Amino acid sequence: MKYKNNRLTIDGINVDFLANKFSTPIYCYSFKKLKENILNFKKNFKKINPLICFAVKSNSNIKILKEISKFNFGADVVSGGELMMALKAGIKPKKIVFSGVGKTSSEIEFAIDKDILLINAESKSEILEIERIARSKKRTVSIGIRLNPNTDAKTINQISTGKKENKFGVDEKTFLRLVDYIKNSRNLNLKCLSVHIGSQILDHKPYEKMLKVVSKTIQKSQYKFEYIDLGGGMGIDYMHNNKKLNLKKYSQSIKKILNKNYSKIIFEPGRSIIGNTAILITKILYIKEGFKKDFIILDAGMNDLIRPALYNAKHKILASKNKKEISKKTYEFVGPICESTDKFSTIKKFQKLKEKDFVVICDVGAYGTSLSSNYNVRPKAIELMIKSSKIQIINKRQKLSELM
Asked: How many structural domains compose the chain?
């Protein structure tokens, strides 16, 4: 995004033009940025040569998945629906990993029928269920076991997944017992140690701690894993203050493990691939004057973007027109939903705004549309992609008639 002649643009196209042509709210993606993120990720981990499985939960738009699949990506899925979506997008079954703590019997059966690469199990009960279904189908199923390394990712509590109090994975003792059990199973083929410690991680040190636990556990198991699935969790710079995860240092730490274990690395990035590719364009409906602050009431609400309400997450907000005049009052950007948590940000010294202006909420490509809802019986927003200076509609705006 850049200001040109004091007008905000995305890949050269004026934000106001998009807002007037398609009406708001609008999710708009930059294919150029998506491609840049993918190539940068591959470059940083080139020497490791990993299998990169895009985390479909971060963004499940089928047209985006199709674009990502063209870069030889696989998919990390956490439901039968996501698995169907990945397959429909053309992602090869042998590049799909099925994660999650609560897979149903029908989802497991579907994954086995589609002959995907791995089902990453997260409990003894789940392993027994996979074995039961495999036995009934007279099949041998490739699985992984997710280890909980009890590692604090130093991220938002609601998206931490690697501490012992989190519901994900199993502890080391349970992990080792399950390895011994699967060794003797006729219907299970243990191929992978899986681990994932959280999301929006910007420091490589938690990853280093996680890798030490992984290495120690592999040594104790005395088992040769074909794959080590390190999950994702790489963060992005939401506040645009140049704080970035050092992928090179992370890559170097992984190489140390690979010197001892000749395993193929699997990554499950989502946010780091799609997060900063999109903006949410929204219109100011009203400016409601308050005692100490003014409420900037937008036509986008928490049903469109729930991250600030759900996680107290921060997103940068920009005006579509760059003006020099600064408001004397603090602005609180809020949506129209009947919830006090329906607010996006409180900002001092923002440029002066007026009703009917357009503003942009930045970096909404991950967990934006995928977490959106019809709360308050509101239709979901239109999704656009700018590719080669052309505007593509990649998801039509939902109509109220479709919800009735």
From this structure: 2
Among residues 53, 192, 338, 362, the one annotated as catalytic is 338
Q: What residues contact residue 40 under an 8 Å CB cut-off, 6+ apart?
A: none
Q: Give the model confidence (pLDDT) of 292-323 as tens digits.
A: 899 999 999 999 999 999 999 999 999 999 99
Are the C-beta atoms of 351 and 393 separated by less than 8 Å? Answer: no
Residue 225 · residue 236 · CB < 8 Å: no
pLDDT tens digits, residue range 342-369? 999 999 999 999 999 999 999 999 999 9
Task: Looking at the structure, tell me whether residues 212 and 328 fall in a common domain.
Answer: no
| 15 and 106 share one domain | no
Alpha-carbon gap, residue 198 to 165, rounded angstroms: 13
- Residue 188 lies in domain: 31-271
> How far is CA 392 from each of CA 8, 151, 348, 366, 396, rounded to the nearest angstrom?
19, 42, 36, 19, 10
Backbone angles phi, psi at 228, to 5 degrees: -120, 110
16 & 63 share domain = no
Residues 116 and 166 in one domain: yes
Tell me the C-alpha distance between 65 and 323, whole Å.
37
Whether residue 244 is found in the same domain as residue 312 = no
Whether 338 is catalytic is yes
Statement to judge: residues 102 and 132 lie in one domain: yes
